[in-house]
Write a structure and sequence with these properties.
The chain is mostly beta strands. The chain has a domain at about 25-270: Purple Acid Phosphatase, chain A, domain 2 (4-Layer Sandwich). It is about 15% helix and about 40% strand. It has a 6-stranded mixed beta sheet. Strands 4-5-6-7-9-8 form a 6-stranded mixed beta sheet, with no helix packed on it. Strands 26-27-28-29-37 form a 5-stranded antiparallel beta sheet, with no helix packed on it. Strand 31 (about 480-485) and strand 32 (about 490-495) form a beta hairpin. The model is unreliable at about 1-25, about 215-220, about 540-545 and about 550-560 (pLDDT under 50).
Length: about 650
């Protein structure tokens, strides 16, 4: 019995110890002091003495960070005095220099390094990496600059930190255009899971959103969150003070609280911790960097890939064999090229050995996919920016001249034309045996007969040209046409009558269907993707229509607004974390995944079943034009900055 009690006591102590260690790992609390400006002004040193004394009275503080401008002129005497006061701290402390420490340094910036022992630091606390480095200018008057050796250190370090590890970055300056090499620093930081970048310099509590420059390194969000801390000086504040930062990894909350004159104020800023999705592992089967922008999707036929660039050149490349050497993979040569007379923003379509594409030189081209030779070209009267759809041997395509055309694929002869298009067409029409459906920059959505081009109906949201259903590629499922418009609304329209059946808040221009067409995917402008069922109807009391429809046989139009709480239509909602997002590119799905294109070059991959984020493909530094599933777990992707790649999901 005694042995049992001893064993039980040991287990309780072990569990308590383990729980205590877990809590220590999950919660990190540190103080941030900046802009001390130790000089011959006695109150500045006195303010630091008061803050150090106050910090020593706080029992649960992990460490202290000093964020630069420790001194006024970087003199040896000022540095020595600051070090003497800071050394009274009972907890570990870390320090970086600012412009006042480096510009007027009588030692040429040597004393700061000699006294404090380093010019950058990398520490770990509770599983969080905290990185800090000095900021110049060193001796020469100029805007702020992270010294070159610190840049190289940061470059190397951010390549080695695991992507999921939370990181905090410390520098004296904000990461904006006040710092000459801020874009480089943001680029390197975007490789890792940066929670926030902390700075001083401005002497006030303030927040920032640093936009990361377009780069293949761009991480989960298009911004790095920045926080500036107040000066420790009493000047303009009433008393000395600093910030306490609490990072609670259990709740995911980051809290910034000012402590002024020994009193803790209410938290002035909070953040949620970022958890990046894992990178999706892929094998690159084909990769090419074009010498021009690409504003359209790539297509594939067999082993040959095709695309058109903004210089008006159509290119065909063969996918290298699996035995190709690294040198061969880097030195790819086109099977053929074809130059048009204008820029191309039209995604090619392939059928029957032909490639069809529109050009801003006012022509529609049909090329032989084997040789690249011209089969025929058809002239419009203005640019042809729209993408063709080929159905039953007929090419369906809009243009900027107010005419939508159907052209025989083999002969290039006009089958029919619809001349009453309001606004120009840039999208790709959905075509089946029942109708031809496309939107325009005239606030219109048209349904035409595929046989003779007669008007079946048209629909408008009455929201003006800028909110037209024009960039969206319409999709059709279960007798309904689905579009999203820039008014941030999704619309379900009866394919036969043109009557709006329902609408829902959210979306802009990016939509797509599941492989079986039972689910509609909608990308919103902020972090979220919705999945709606297409095989059920939403029924509730109809409200007066804000949209209207014109038909050969007019009928009344009605619409219903789907509430955010609806579960009859909405299958799932996914909060992905892609940030602010406006790419109009279509959503595609295959292999149990939903592929979400973004305007920052990332592809978010969601699980089709529940919308959970499976991972991210960091493809490029610009808008993803299209993600084309090609079978065998492969996707063909092009981006606005000219990259084309065939990737195999592992």
């Amino acid at each position: 019995m005694k042995a049992f009690k001893v064993l039980a006591l040991f287990c309780l102590l072990f569990l308590y110890s383990a729980d205590s260690q877990a809590q220590k790992k999950m919660a990190v609390r540190f103080a941030f002091l900046t802009d001390l400006h130790i000089s011959d002004v006695l109150t500045n040193a006195e303010d630091l003495e008061l803050s150090v004394e106050d910090l020593n009275s706080i029992s649960n503080l992990s460490f202290v960070i000093f964020g630069g401008d420790i001194t006024e002129f970087g003199s040896d005497e000022e540095i020595s005095r600051a070090h003497a006061i800071i050394s009274k701290l009972k907890v570990p402390w870390y320090i970086v220099g600012g412009n006042h420490d480096s510009k007027w340094s009588e030692s040429g910036c040597n004393t700061f390094k000699d006294v404090f022992g380093y010019e950058w630091f990398d520490i770990e606390a509770g599983g969080i990496r905290i990185l800090g480095c000095n900021s110049g200018p060193n001796m020469r008057m100029a805007p702020a600059l992270v010294p070159r050796d610190a840049v190289l250190w940061l470059d190397s370090l951010t390549r080695s930190i695991p992507p999921a590890t939370p990181v905090v970055f410390i520098n004296h300056y904000p990461l904006d255009d006040a710092m000459l090499n801020y874009t480089t620093i943001l680029d390197y930081l975007s490789r890792v899971n940066v929670q926030f970048a902390m700075c001083g310099h401005g002497h006030n509590n303030r927040t920032f959103s640093y936009k990361v420059p377009g780069s293949p390194n761009t991480a989960v969000t298009p911004v790095i969150r920045g926080v500036m801390g107040r000066s420790n000086l009493r000047a303009g504040k009433g008393s000395n003070g600093y910030n306490i930062i609490d990072i609670d990894q259990t709740t995911g909350n980051i809290t910034f609280t000012e402590r002024s004159g020994g009193k803790t104020l209410a938290p002035w800023h909070t953040l949620k911790m970022l958890t990046p999705p894992p990178a999706i592992k892929t094998t690159t089967l084909f990769n090419y960097q074009d010498d021009s922008d690409i504003g359209s999707g790539a297509v594939i036929d067999g082993n040959r890939i095709f695309w058109a660039n903004a210089n008006g050149v159509i290119k065909a490349f063969d996918v290298p064999s699996s035995s190709a050497s690294p040198a061969e993979l880097k030195n790819l040569h086109p099977a053929w090229t074809f130059k048009t007379g204008g820029k191309i923003f039209s995604t090619p379509a392939i059928a029957g050995g032909s490639l069809v594409v529109g050009s801003s030189d006012t022509h529609i081209y049909n090329l032989d996919i084997k040789s690249g030779k011209l089969i025929w070209k058809y002239k419009a009267t203005k640019s042809v920016l729209a993408s063709p759809t080929i159905h039953n041997g007929v090419v369906y395509i809009g243009a900027s001249d107010g005419i939508f055309r159907a052209i025989d694929l083999k002969t290039g002869k006009l089958v029919w034309e619809f001349k009453d298009v309001k606004g120009f067409v840039e999208s790709k029409a959905w075509v089946d045996d029942s109708g031809v459906y496309f939107g325009t920059w005239g606030s219109m959505l048209y349904a035409l007969s595929p046989k003779d081009g007669s008007l079946l109906w048209n629909w408008t949201n009455h929201k003006g040209r800028g909110l037209s259903p024009a960039a969206v590629w319409p999709v059709k499922a279960n007798g309904k046409i689905f579009v999203a418009t820039p008014e941030r609304m999704t619309h379900a329209i009866d394919g036969t009558s043109g009557t709006e059946l329902w609408r829902a808040r959210g979306g802009r221009e990016s939509v797509g269907l599941s492989p079986d067409a039972t689910i509609l995917y909608i990308k919103t402008m902020q972090d979220t993707v919705f999945a709606y069922r297409t095989d059920v109807n939403f029924t509730t009391t109809a409200t007066p229509a804000a949209s209207s429809v014109t038909q050969a046989s007019p009928s009344s139009a009605a619409q219903t607004l789907v509430p955010l709480t609806d579960k009859s239509l909405r299958k799932w909602t996914s909060h992905t974390g892609y940030g602010y997002e406006i790419a109009p590119s279509a959503i595609t799905s295959a292999y149990g995944y939903v592929f979400i294109p973004t305007d920052k070059g990332n592809i978010f991959v969601l699980n089709e079943a529940d919308g959970s984020v499976a991972g991210i493909i960091r493809f490029s530094g610009a808008l993803i034009n299209h993600i084309l599933p090609t079978g065998n777990r492969q996707i063909l992707v092009s981006s606005m900055d000219g990259r084309v790649a065939l990737l195999k999901l592992e």
